[in-house]
Specification:
It is found in: Cytoplasm. 31% of the residues lie in helices and 28% in strands. By secondary structure, the protein is α/β, with parallel strands linked by helices. Helix 2 packs across helix 8. The chain binds guanosine-5'-diphosphate and magnesium ion (MG).
């Protein structure tokens, strides 16, 4: 009773009782770090919208993304090679649009759970020959819960059996009412096969982005979110990060969850090595100590030492979080009363 225990030991003993010892100080530190600083409006400039494509399986999400990419990314850009980094930027007459190409809702959901938001606008793809299906509803719920603007793309209008009116009718139940029916939701009939309606869809994305007044300060230390990451045989841990604020530079010290490091190289969605990446830019980064998780926040720190120390705090914090999900919390008194 009179001997002191270090944290590790206390944790070990607590685990024997299926309980958790809180390390409150650590949690505070992490929460403090993740807090968003107030930014001066005068430092903010317009940034491209970040768009994800959601919808029921087989309604044409992949086809739509492919069509947009192939018709809006000039082939010369990467010598004809299209790099897959989980996101890409298209150039339109109204400016850039960043598309997230991460499969399924998983990354999206985990980001939301971590309180991080990656997407500004969701394109809800509904096949005109199939209508509203379970994953359509799921997608609507996800987008609404995250407060993301929804644009409906009624796809496959080239098909004989397409019924645009029916889709509009079905979506009323989910409060997605077209403007011509007195609502405020944008509906775009498209065909990912013929390309019909896609330019109009992109126009609507830009218009929506304008209304949302999406801005970021490019002149600060970068902050972003991991879209996907993996261990590459030759290159080590590789993470695709969406820069959300500030500008990321080669050589920057970064902390991402329990990973840290110095950005050794950056590769953009066209497979090109770049030195800087501003707001709404997806980039692959090399030089991390380990593979981070999708949805984790990337922070640029003043030094590598600081980045490492943040990562270490995350390790302690993460372990605690994990335990608290499965185990009850307990004070030391409870522990000794067992
Ligand atoms: P995802 O599961 O939502 O990613 O759907 P896919 O893009 O894989 O498309 C599912 C199927 O629908 C594929 O066979 C596509 O060729 C087809 N498809 C997608 N878009 C269209 C379209 O606009 N018109 C027609 N006729 N077929 C389409
Ligand atoms: Mg697909």
């Amino acid at each position: 009773v009179n001997s002191e225990l270090d944290f590790e030991k206390a944790e070990e003993i607590a685990m024997e009782f299926d309980r958790l010892v809180e390390m409150e100080e650590q949690v505070d530190v992490i929460e403090e770090l993740l807090k968003e600083e107030e930014e001066d409006e005068t430092d903010m400039i317009v940034r491209p919208p970040v768009v994800c494509v959601m919808g029921h399986v087989d309604h044409g999400k992949t086809s739509l993304l492919d069509k947009i990419r192939s018709s809006h990314v000039t082939t010369g850009e990467a010598g004809g090679i299209t790099q897959h980094i989980g996101a890409y930027v298209v150039e339109t007459s109204n400016g850039k649009i960043t598309f997230l190409d991460t499969p399924g809702h998983e990354a999206f959901t985990s980001m939301r759970m971590r309180g991080a938001q990656s997407t500004d606008i969701a394109i809800l793809v509904v096949a005109a020959d199939d209508g509203v299906m379970p994953q359509t509803i799921e997608a609507i719920n996800h987008a609404k819960a995250a407060g993301i603007e929804i644009i409906v793309a009624i796809n496959k209008i080239d098909k004989e059996s397409a019924n645009i009116e029916r889709v509009k009718q079905e979506l009323i139940e989910y409060e997605l009412v077209p403007e011509d029916w007195g609502g405020s939701t944008i509906f775009c009939p498209v065909s990912a096969h013929t390309g019909e309606g896609i330019d109009e869809l992109l126009d609507m994305v830009s218009l929506t982005a304008e209304v949302l007044e999406l801005k970021a300060n490019p002149n600060r230390k970068a902050r972003g979110i991991v879209l996907e990451a993996q261990l590459d045989k030759g290159r080590g841990p590789v993470a695709t990060v969406l820069v959300q604020k500030g500008t990321l530079h080669v050589g920057d010290a970064v902390a991402i969850g329990s990973a840290h490091g110095k950005v050794r190289a950056m590769i953009n969605d066209k497979g090109k090595r770049i030195k800087t990446a501003g707001p709404s830019t997806p980039v692959e980064i090399l030089g991390l100590s380990e593979v981070p998780n999708a949805g984790e926040v990337m922070m640029v720190m003043d030094s590598e030492k600081e980045a490492r120390s943040v990562a270490e705090k995350f390790i302690a914090y993460g372990r605690e979080k994990m335990l608290s999900e499965t185990k009850q919390q307990l004070s030391l008194d409870d522990l000794f009363n067992q």
